[in-house]
Design a protein that fits this description.
The complex is a heterodimer of chains A (502) and B (237). Chain A is rod-shaped and about 160 Å long. Chain A has 502 residues and is an alpha+beta fold. Chain A contains twelve helices and twelve strands. Chain A has three domains: 157 residues, PAS domain (Beta-Lactamase); 86 residues, Orthogonal Bundle (Helix Hairpins), CATH 1.10.287; 168 residues, Heat Shock Protein 90. The longest helix of chain A has 53 residues. In chain A, helix 2 runs antiparallel to helix 6, helix 7 packs antiparallel against helix 8 and helix 10 packs antiparallel against helix 12. Chain A has a five-stranded antiparallel sheet, with helices on both faces. Chain B has two domains: 130 residues, Rossmann fold (3-Layer(aba) Sandwich), CATH 3.40.50.2300; 95 residues, Arc Repressor Mutant, subunit A (Orthogonal Bundle), CATH 1.10.10.10. In chain B, 42% of the residues lie in helices and 20% in strands. In chain B, strand 10 and strand 11 form a beta hairpin. The N terminus of chain B is likely disordered. The chains are: A alpha+beta (502), B alpha/beta (237).
Chain lengths: 502, 237
């Protein structure tokens, strides 16, 4: 039976795991504690009040007898009346009085006192506490309060009698016993009722959470539309619900991006393959001249190149997203790099009647970057800018350092400088409509799909720029005024020390 | 290509190349293309056959695919190197993660190429691997009536000085130094402008067009030729 004690704990442990159980247990414990505290303190007050009233009664009696002994020591009738008869007339709360002289010889005694009380014990126990009431159990098991005192007899000093008074408090003891009984009844009832109430309150409190969980269970990649209605919830849970809804918005958005991406990728991969297949098929349908064959093969080659460029770009993006992607950082003079890019695109710009200029800082800016990737990022931007700028316009390449409070004049500083390098490519081109701006860094996003397709881009250029920036721990940002121009700003940390610049 | 067929024979020996490639079409076009470029080419369809062939016959160069049935490319390479075979090895791989390249070089590969590749690129790499030793750097290049003085950075056609920018001169001398070879746009961008990425290669087209307007347009004999889908070549036929 005790071979596997952990088995019997398992359901409890599982219950303890539920929030409702914990809350209910907490409510129950707190409730029991409060009920116990209240009844126990009431009981203590009751005990002390009852005792006090008994003790006042005793003191009153003693006082009456003392007065009588002092004022009228020889009026034995009055004393007998007081001691023997008055008590006998009472049915409840009977009291007993004994009067002793100096030599402890009893003078007067309430009848039945010797049967009720052990008089020797009475004397010895009250001896240590003169003038104070103490509790005592009588011969028949009844509870008593007893006191004894000495009283001077007559007006001249010398003679003193001893007064012993006892009062039967068994009625009050019974009252307290009933009280204790009800105390336990209330406690047990609380113990039975509180968990039920606590559990109901807890369940009511966490029901919104369960509703959210139910909603969450319904959500899958195919059903991202469901939302939690934030009305009717308490404030804390309403904010949780809206946070949850925002997360769902973002998820839905990125799922949409992915499915758009898949659709785009299918289109962009199928088109060249389709061209190759169709052209080859048509060419082979009947005999043709060598020139015709050459034309078809050349066209196929062009499509194949387009396809492999696309694959290269896609692989680049996929690799850049992998956490294992690593950069080949080297010391790069950013101004020189921009100059190189400008040189590369100079002829194209001149061809399109666009001026291409660089504004480079006087001091060389050296940063540890992946040269090839940065060339590619800036190259993509310049190529885009040139493609969208009409003749007579201008494309500007600019750069600068956004220092983070580092003093560059301090040439002795050997501390690494984590300032931000900024590269800007701006044009006076057609611009981008505001509603398209948030999506320009998306894969395959084209502001004007028909035209971009014709210009031969894969639609991945800006996505690649952004992923190159992310790889460098930076970010690409775009701003545009339709009809006036576009500016793309690249920001990334330099990871270099300006004092080492050669 | 004819001129190169000659040049390969002129060296006095025919270079032998082993292609280990399981994809039949790839193997076929490699054999055809390299054969037409003047090399003797043998093909093996899997790693084991390839290893046997490489062990029994002497090859100057092994073109090795990484993903092979039987033995994969890494294993073939390490076996060859264990046996002390010094044949040059050029890797072909569809995977271009950096650590894979490093692994290839660690095992003793001499070069690698990522699929899909331009055949002209492969041919250029094969030639530069087989050339062995430093290139004879010439001071003057000559093709038909085009003359390039590399030292003084001057080019003339029919004795007439061509006014070229420095990049145009670099482009022309690159084409001339490797005349007869089709140079891809990517290769040109890399060699002339140090742009190591394959995007927007029509920039090269613009520059070639500008070069043409100075080198070819005033003269009846055209030297710069476009090979559609592949690149540019300088030749005098």
């Amino acid at each position: 039976m005790f071979s596997n004690p952990t088995n019997s704990f398992r359901p409890v442990l599982r219950l303890w795991g539920t929030l409702a159980f914990r809350l209910a247990a907490g409510y129950t414990l707190a409730g029991l504690f409060l009920v116990s505290l209240a009844t126990a303190s009431l009981y203590l007050v009751l005990v002390s009040e009852l005792q006090k009233s008994t003790d006042l009664f005793l003191a009153d009696k003693v006082n009456v007898l003392r007065t009588m002994l002092r004022e009228r020591p020889d009026d034995w009738d009055a004393l007998r009346e007081e001691i023997e008869l008055e008590s006998a007339a009472r049915r409840y709360e009977q009291f007993y009085i004994r009067l002793l002289d100096e030599r402890n010889k009893p003078l007067l005694m309430t009848p039945g006192m010797a049967e009720q009380l052990d008089l020797l014990q009475f004397a010895s126990r009250t001896q240590n506490h003169p003038d104070r009431a103490i509790g005592m159990t009588g011969r028949l098991g009844r509870a008593f309060r007893v006191t004894s005192t000495s009283a001077p007899v007559g007006s001249q000093a010398g003679r003193t009698y001893a007064i012993q008074v006892a009062i039967d408090v068994s009625q009050k003891a019974a009252l307290l016993a009933r009280y204790r009984f009800w105390f336990w009844v209330i406690l047990l009832a609380s113990f039975a009722i509180l968990p039920l109430f606590g559990y109901r309150i807890a369940r009511h409190g966490i029901r919104p959470v369960e509703e959210m969980a139910t909603t969450a269970r319904h959500i899958s990649s195919t059903n991202l539309r469901e939302r939690i209605l934030p009305e009717g919830y308490p404030f804390e849970l309403a904010s949780l619900a809206s946070t949850f809804n925002q997360m769902l918005d973002r998820l839905e958005e990125s799922f949409e991006r992915i499915s758009r991406f898949s659709a785009d990728i299918a289109h962009d991969l199928r088109t060249p393959v389709n061209n190759i297949r169709g052209e080859a098929e048509v060419a082979l349908a009947r005999a043709r001249s060598a020139d015709e064959y050459r034309d078809v093969i050349e066209s196929c080659l062009e499509e194949a190149v387009r396809l492999s460029d696309l694959i290269g770009d896609l692989l680049f993006l996929a690799r850049a997203e992998s956490p294992l992607a690593n950069l080949r950082r080297e010391r790069v003079d950013v101004g020189e790099l921009l100059g190189g890019v400008r040189e590369y695109y100079e002829a194209s710009a001149a061809d399109g009647g666009v001026s291409l200029t660089t504004a480079v800082a006087d001091e060389p800016v050296i940063a540890e970057l992946d040269r090839t990737l940065l060339q590619r990022a800036v190259g993509n931007l310049v190529s885009n800018a040139l493609a969208h700028t009409p003749p007579g316009g201008a494309v500007m390449l600019g750069m600068g350092l956004d220092s983070s409070g580092v003093d560059y004049s301090d040439k002795d500083s050997s501390k690494p400088d984590f300032s931000t390098i900024r590269i800007e490519v701006s044009d006076t081109g057609v611009g981008i409509p505001a509603e398209s701006l948030p999506r320009v860094f998306d894969r395959f996003f084209r502001v004007d799909s028909s035209r971009a397709q014709a210009s031969g881009g894969t639609g991945l250029g800006l996505a690649i720029v952004q992923s190159i920036m992310l790889l460098h721990g930076g970010k690409a940002e775009i701003s545009s005024q339709p009809g006036q121009g576009t500016r793309v700003t690249l920001r990334m940390p330099t990871f270099s020390t300006p004092s080492c610049a050669k | 290509m004819r001129s190169h067929l000659l040049s390969e024979v002129q060296v006095g020996q025919v270079m032998k190349i082993l292609v280990i490639e399981d994809e039949a079409k790839t193997a076929k076009f490699l054999q055809k293309g390299l054969g037409e470029a003047g090399f003797v080419v043998d093909v093996a369809g899997d790693g084991l056959d390839g290893l046997h062939l490489a062990q029994e016959l002497e090859f100057d160069l092994v073109i090795l695919d990484v993903m092979l049935p039987g033995l994969d490319g890494w294993q073939v390479l390490s076996r060859l190197r264990e046996e002390g075979r010094r044949a040059l090895v050029l890797f072909l791989t569809a995977r271009d993660a950096v650590h894979e390249r490093v692994r290839g070089f660690d095992l003793g590969a001499d070069d690698y190429l990522v699929k899909p590749f331009a055949f002209s690129e492969l041919l250029a790499r094969v030639r530069s691997l087989l050339r062995r030793g430093p290139l004879r750097e010439q001071e003057r290049l000559r093709l038909a009536d085009l003359e390039i003085d590399l030292l003084r950075q001057r080019a003339t056609r029919a004795g007439q000085r061509l006014e070229l920018t420095s990049k145009e001169f670099l482009l022309l001398s690159l084409l001339a130094r490797r005349s007869g070879e089709v140079l891809s746009r990517t290769l040109i961008a890399e060699a002339v402008w140090d742009m190591n990425f394959d995007s927007d290669t029509n920039v090269v087209d613009v520059n070639v067009r500008r070069l043409r307007s100075k080198v070819d347009d005033p003269f009846p004999l055209k030297l710069i030729h476009t090979v559609r889908g592949a690149g540019y070549v300088l030749e005098s036929d």
